[in-house]
Every structure is written in structure tokens, then in C-alpha cells.
Amino acid sequence: MMRAVKGKHTKPELLVRSAAHRCGLRFRIHKRDLPGSPDVVFPRHKVALFVHGCYWHRHPGCRKATTPATNVEFWAEKFRANVARDSRNRDALTALGWRVVEVWECEVPTMEAAKALMLKIFKAELAPH
């Protein structure tokens, strides 16, 4: 059932938040005053991060981005609307001067992967001085 699908505090999102905290980054979650309510916001760095599920947000080329065999038209429209909304939110945040980062659930299967991703995203800020 779709009502059982979580929109916030998913496992990949919790991994990313935990990894960011372990890297010493401070953040806010689900900022409703920003377009799309980004999952994790780093105000000091002006970075808005979305943790996308590969299935719902149609990760290109990912094996998790399958399409149900029944009610194909409904699902095609649902997925198209999700991708269009993501694009609008990304453009609106960029126009406001935010750097937008999309993290796909398949990119962060473990804490180690999530930490590596945080280090990659914030390489200049986390480099030893």
C-alpha cells in the first residue's frame, strides 16, 4: 500500500544525516521554507540535499527504478509528475543561490558509503587545514 511508503526519515536519509554529523557538519532537516523541503540543508554552505528513492524518483539506469506491470498509465503519470516536481524544486533552489545535491538511495547502502559521499560533496570544507 502506498500509505505505508515513508516520505521522511527513510533509512538512506538517516544514513546520510548520521554521516554528515560524524563528519562534523551541522544541518537542518526538511526545511519547509525552501522549495521542495530539502531532506537535509546545510545553511552555512548553502547546500540543499535531497535523498531520493530510486523507484519513486526514477534514477536513470538503476535496477531499482522498475515500473509495475499493472495500471501502467497511472504509474507512468505518477513517476512523470515526481520527476517534473523534482526538476522544478531543483531550479527554484538554484535560482535562490543554493547548491542542490541529489543523493540516490543506491549510492548510500552503508555508513561508509554515506561518509565517503559527504566527504566528496564537502571536500573543500572538510579538508584538514
TrEMBL record:
<comment type="similarity">
    <text>Belongs to the vsr family.</text>
</comment>
<keyword id="KW-0255">Endonuclease</keyword>
<comment type="function">
    <text>May nick specific sequences that contain T:G mispairs resulting from m5C-deamination.</text>
</comment>
<protein>
    <recommendedName>
        <fullName>Very short patch repair endonuclease</fullName>
        <ecNumber>3.1.-.-</ecNumber>
    </recommendedName>
</protein>
<dbReference type="Pfam" id="PF03852">
    <property type="entry name" value="Vsr"/>
</dbReference>
<dbReference type="GO" id="GO:0004519">
    <property type="term" value="F:endonuclease activity"/>
</dbReference>
<dbReference type="InterPro" id="IPR011335">
    <property type="entry name" value="Restrct_endonuc-II-like"/>
</dbReference>
<keyword id="KW-0227">DNA damage</keyword>
<keyword id="KW-0234">DNA repair</keyword>
<dbReference type="InterPro" id="IPR004603">
    <property type="entry name" value="DNA_mismatch_endonuc_vsr"/>
</dbReference>
<keyword id="KW-0378">Hydrolase</keyword>
<keyword id="KW-0540">Nuclease</keyword>
